[in-house]
Design a protein that fits this description.
Structural class: alpha/beta
Number of helices: 12
Shape: globular
Strand content: 15-25%
Largest sheet: 7 strands, mixed
Order of helices and strands: HEEEEEHEHHEHHHEEEEEHEHHHH
Radius of gyration: 19 Å
Helix content: 40-55%
Strand order of the largest sheet: 2-3-4-5-6-7-8
Distance between the termini: 23 Å
């Protein structure tokens, strides 16, 4: 999700320090037929999603495209070195910009490729990203300026670091934004779709509401691998605009697919479902505590300090991880229980 949009004002996405780690990635062969172009750890308000390639004997299916055009072009070049087969399908797991905004890079290279997404993804992405560069030409610099003021005014060292690194990366995103041309999905999916890539079958499925109501996942059946989009994010989940109760039910359905390997929307390839169980426990205790506090008349402002999720938080061993958890999970979950009034 173009996280500047969602995290700070509800518009897009940003990420890390002087070198801006969001412009880096590493190639991981996750299974015999699946290659992951793993983005750097997304802990600032600018993030880039993992890009996943499923390679068959006749064709390639791509899961998500990231949001940074220059990075997408490098991924495409790396992919061409792995396989000269055509990309016939691109699956957008959900509508957030850090997963869909670089669709155009791959569509230009393979015009016949079909972009598949849930109707919710199509609707939401169109409302945010149509005329993306023009809309953000003034808005994004204004957001950066506001964050700079917050950085200068902050007395919390960890928040100050988070804001400083976000501003650095956001500024590096400006020229990328100018060349971004949002290309919408052209195939909608509300249930299942099987795609034969030649010796490899990809099952594209909407399991239910997760990070967004339109989350879809891709199961590579023979490899027992599922690309889960932001249904799973490590080291800290992104919950902006998310509802925790249905997310838990959908995670349970995800585990029923029988996968042995999970590729998250952000973070490293996972070889078991331990982290999924940890997420379920986190969502359960967060929701229960917040609802109880609301019923007892605790204010939205006080809920943050009273929420006890130390068992999960203890694993977050850097200021950037702790700030990401606060900004993208804790405050987002509170906002779902205590929504701000319209306007």
């Amino acid at each position: 999700m173009l996280r500047i949009a969602a995290a700070l004002a509800a518009s897009s996405s940003l990420c890390i320090a002087n070198a801006c780690e969001m412009f880096e990635y590493r190639h991981v062969k996750a299974s015999p037929h699946v290659h992951v172009f793993q983005a750097a750890e997304g802990t600032t308000a600018v993030v880039n999603g993992n890009i996943v390639a499923v390679v068959g004997e006749r064709a390639v299916l791509l899961v998500d495209t990231g949001q940074i055009p220059s990075v997408a072009r490098r991924v495409l070049a790396d992919l061409r070195r792995l396989s000269l087969l055509p990309i016939t399908h691109i699956v957008n797991t959900h509508w957030h910009g850090d997963h869909v905004l670089a669709n155009f890079v791959f569509k230009e290279a393979f015009p016949a490729a079909k972009i598949v997404a849930h109707p919710h993804t199509v609707e939401r992405a169109a409302s945010f990203y149509t005329d993306y560069a023009a809309k953000n030409r003034e808005r994004l610099p204004a957001i950066i300026a506001d964050m700079g003021k917050r950085r200068d005014a902050s007395t919390d060292p960890e928040e100050k670091e988070w804001l400083a690194k976000t501003v650095d990366c956001a500024e590096k995103m400006l020229p990328e934004m100018e060349v971004t041309k949002y290309v919408a999905p052209d195939v909608t999916l509300e249930g299942d779709m099987r795609i034969d890539l030649g010796g490899v079958t990809a099952l594209v499925r909407h399991l239910g509401e997760g990070n967004t109501p339109g989350d879809i996942v891709v199961l590579v059946e023979g490899d027992r691998l599922v690309a889960a989009g932001d249904m799973i994010v490590a080291p800290t989940p992104y919950a902006i605009g998310s509802s925790l109760e249905p997310w838990r039910r959908t995670l349970a359905e995800l585990r029923k697919l029988g996968a042995a390997t999970f590729v998250p929307g952000h973070g490293p390839v996972m070889r078991d479902d331990v982290y999924l169980r940890d997420l379920d426990a986190l969502f359960a205790t967060t929701y229960a505590q917040l609802k109880e506090m609301q019923q007892k008349g605790v204010s939205r402002k006080d809920a943050e300090s009273r929420l006890d999720i130390g068992a999960f938080k203890a694993r977050l061993d850097t200021p950037m991880k702790r700030q990401a958890f606060l900004q993208f999970y804790v405050r987002a979950a509170i906002a779902q229980v205590w929504p701000k009034p319209p306007g």
